[in-house]
Amino acid sequence: MNSLIDVSAHRDAVEIADGVYWVGALDPTLRTFDIILSTANGTTYNAFLVKGSEGVAVIDTVKEEFADEFFARLESQVEYSEIKVIVLNHLEPDHTGALPELMRRAPQARLYISRRATSMLKALLKAGEDLKYTTVATGDHVELGDRRLSFLHTPFLHWPDTQCTYLEQEGILFSGDIFGCHYCDKRLFNDLVGDFRFSFDYYYAHIMRPFKEHVLNALKLIEPLKLTQVAPTHGPILRERPRRYVTHYRELSSPALGHGIGDQEKTLIVFYISAYGNTARMAEAVNEGASGVAGVRVSLYDLQGGEVEPFVNLIEEADALLFGSPTINGDAVKPVWDLLSSLAVVNLQGKLGGAFGSYGWSGEAIRLVEDRMRGLKMNIPHPGIRVKLIPTEEELDECRSFGQRIAENLVGLGGEKAVLDFADL
Amino acid sequence: MAKAKITFEDIEQTVNVPAGTRVIEVSEKVGAGIIYGCREGDCGTCMMHVTEGWNNLTEPSVLEEKVLKENMAGRHDRLACQAQIIGDCKVKPA
Ligand code: FES
Ligand SMILES: [Fe+2]
Ligand SMILES: [Fe+2]
User: Do A150 and A163 contact (CB within 8 A), yes or no?
Assistant: First the structure.
């Protein structure tokens, strides 16, 4: 099949189906995206053109620096005056960089965005009330004469504004960042490009994973569709066995550690690190207290004995997380921060958290760890426990009761939560 | 200073706050489920539903009304980054 495709050699549109064209751009030299993502061979900004009997639709644009390439490809197929519809699946600048210029060249075109995109659009275009746009949601569509684009509301993949657009007759899904990856290959199609599996999974892990719930909601809309191609905004166009990628998303979004823990059971993990064994003894006491509560599966891990990645997987599935850290030089110790700073890729919202630890002169670690957990949108039901140097028997009892109370909160025991005072937060 | 009580129903947490506190300030500290985007009343991400004490929040500004409308807000929905607590109320993510 088209093994001679080389989109870097020309600036024409590439037909991906009858009357449907890729008009995107290659960015082979990019090495980091949005600061946090590495892109070993660059990325692509995919934009598309759909010709109908009564007008043309442009779906997404490209990053501003690549506008020339985008316009050249566009012009190879259509006149600006034919453009009736501009669909924006996602307003991030990598896809809307060429939008202001496109709107200048095709002022008659109407914008189609998701409802959540309105304020972003206005900010992006610095535009006032005269902007012509239509907000759409699942079930809405726009006609191009003989063709019809329908919309799927798929928020948070990757921003609140994201949506997918579906060309019904052909079964082509323009999926925005969903099913995308930062992978640049001039051969463009998944059956021709190099091995991009790593990039696909890496992209999922960093962009989609924190929003698994939203991925599952999106899949509910996508799975029933007839799919001949999935055309994301980055990376290869998935025309060979597109459904494989949909299935893969479902797998990736299902609990990684699904088995072994009963459905009704809650999991609580106690992580600790200890310099002189004091925080370790506290951890054991916390563990003991929590383990006494029926319906809660408790695990105890020494952070020095494990690596960040598997712990992140565990944490993603856990219901409560307790961290024990000594205070050294006024701070929690590095392995604790290494783990806590690797959690942006998972959703911790609403999980219960707590901290404890031993200290020499000052016990700042507890407060700092609690603040970080709050920053991760966790709920800290009880203030943490600090012990000066070696825990006494009494203090260990306090640790037991701390573990027990959190475990009880997990299973809905422990009665009404205490009313907090804003000044103490 | 006048005090008020706000309850986040999703996490069953009640907090005593000085009157005039914005919901966002409290909700983030206790880890309630309301999500924030712009934090300045523009994006509509932080929409919450007020289940009790609707009148115990400051009145929405014209701008907030507009954003609520654009985001298809229901009755008694507010932006948590804008609303200030002036009396007892209960809220949850919209
Ligand atoms: S966070 Fe954007 S409107 Fe409140
Ligand atoms: Fe994006
Ligand atoms: Fe993107």
Answer: no
Ligand 3 centre distance from Cα of residue A141 (Å):
23
Domain extent, residue A335, equals 263-424
- Cα of first residue to Cα of last residue in chain B, in angstroms, is 30
Q: Give the integer Cα–Cα distance in Å for A279 and A271.
A: 10
Q: What fold, for B3-93?
A: Ubiquitin-like (UB roll) (3.10.20)
CB neighbours of residue A2 within 10 Å: 11
ipTM: 0.88
Q: What's the confidence (pLDDT) of residue A141?
A: 96
pTM score, whole prediction:
0.77
**What is the number of alpha carbons within 13 Å of residue A136 lying toward its C-beta?**
27
Q: Which residues surround ligand 2, an ion (CB under 5 A)?
A: A 92, 158, 177
- Model pLDDT for residues B39-83, shown as the tens digit of each residue: 889 888 899 999 999 999 999 999 999 989 888 888 899 999 999
Expressed in angstroms and rounded, the spacing between residue A204 Cα and the centre of ligand 2 is 12
- For residue A355, list chain B residues with Cβ-Cβ distance below 8 A: none
Residue A214 counted as domain residue: yes
Ligand 1: residues within 6 Å at CB?
B 36-39, 41-46, 67, 79, 81
Task: Look at A49-58, A142-151, A217-226, A407-416 and tell me which has the smallest mean pLDDT.
Answer: A407-416
Helix (H) or strand (E) holding A317: helix A308-317
**With 60 as the cut, is the pLDDT of residue A2 above it?**
no
- What is the pLDDT, as a whole number, of residue A123? 83
A253, A282, A298 — which closes off a domain? Answer: A253
Q: Which residue of B has its CA nearest to A417?
A: B13
- Closest atom, ligand 1, to C-alpha of B80: 4
Number of domains composing chain A: 2
The residue out of A253, A282, A313 marking a domain boundary is A253
